[in-house]
Amino acid sequence: MASNHRNGDSHIHHLPKKPKLSSTSLITPSEIQSEFCHHDPSVARINNGSFGSCPDSVIKAQQVLQLEFLRQPDHFYFNCLKEGILRSRTVIKQLINARHVDEVSIVDNATTAAAIVLQRTAWAFAEGRFEKGDVAIMLHYAYGAVKKSVEAYVTRAGGCVIEVQMPFPVNTNDEIIHEFRKALERGKENGRKIRLAVIDHITSMPCVVIPVKELVKICREEGVDQVFVDAAHAIGCTDVDMQDIGADFYTSNLHKWFFCPPSIAFLYSRSSPKCLDLHHPVVSHEYGSGLAVESAWIGTRDYSAQLVVPKALDFVNRFEGGIEGIKKRNHDKAVEMGQMLAKAWGTNLGCPPEMCASMIMVGLPASLAISSDSDTLKLRAHLRENFGVEVPIYYRAPKDGEVGVITGYARISYQVYNTFEDYTKFRDAVNKLVSEGFTCNLLSN
């Protein structure tokens, strides 16, 4: 595909303003349930954060595109694919308040986006632009796959990686900012330069909304070369505004909280000479045409997930307030359900309501005796297989001198398809385990 993406949005009209919906045109509760009727009705699915959810109307639109490709692949490739991906990028550009569509590329997922940014960092070490021992900063609670990517691209290239030690449970943004500043101080010791900061917008496990705008500002003040925000959960879950956040690179999945099918994410790259030279890790025919075009063709594969973004936006706009309304209602319900569970179990939340989005950490009863990461996986499987509850669990190791503290936290999500009964099912399952004297050491390895 020849590249004319520099002029990509010159011939595309701005998205029309979302029409005000009358009460009769708003999506109804029964229509919501119909859109997600493919979900297993026997499972309380309170884990939207892991894989997201896709409504039936978007799935049908995807299937139409898949069949169009299979019917006449050459026509689809030459006449439809590029234009369709550009439409999706234009929708994303406006959703995230990017300045230009050229700043937006579509990739498989946030893990791929991290590899793209960190690959560039590795090249800088290899080509002598960075010196051995220069520093990359990341949060201790960075996503596991991103940590591996940092190891593969930064550590192996000769960079030094410093982790920000994050508190949990956490009570204020100031606690996070304090630890971030301490890590920057360590990074600058002995005259070292901090080349990259990798900052989560919403950490995965444990989940907390990070004061990303404030941390980006601190990075600018402290001379950090570039900032990459891993916001896998962000779009559709919390506020995403590129001009307000001010990062150099920012990625978020659209299949987690924006109702797209797996897998699709965007990678924003700020228009700046320092943000050029990004390439897809799969080198194909479009290498050198710019990341957006490279990503739009990495060989024969199913691109339908990248093409249905406008259809997902149509679905979102059936709700009162559109995406803003969904985010607020999901947040409020996540807090309400979290508080209900914590009260029922005599525990606590992992953060105050203002530090969560559509997910929140809820302490599990200490009597369950969760004592390792292995215990969390076994308990999660036990809840899935014996109670029909799907929820991830986090192990929080006790600190020195702590006795009888909560060591297990459940990460509950709330999405539009969830009901109150999903959470009472979880509540009652845990209460049953407690009443029976269950502990995690009763589970087989």
From TrEMBL:
Which keywords appear in this protein's UniProt record, sorted alphabetically? Answer: Pyridoxal phosphate
Which Pfam families does the UniProt entry name for this protein? Aminotran_5
Q: Where is this region: Disordered?
A: 1-23
Q: Which residues form the Aminotransferase class V domain?
A: 86-363
- Basic and acidic residues compositional bias, start-end: 1-12
PANTHER family named among the record's database cross-references: HERCYNYLCYSTEINE SULFOXIDE LYASE, L-CYSTEINE DESULFHYDRASE
Q: What is this protein called?
A: Aminotransferase class V domain-containing protein
User: Source species, please?
Assistant: Carya illinoinensis
Lineage, top ranks = Eukaryota, Viridiplantae, Streptophyta, Embryophyta, Tracheophyta
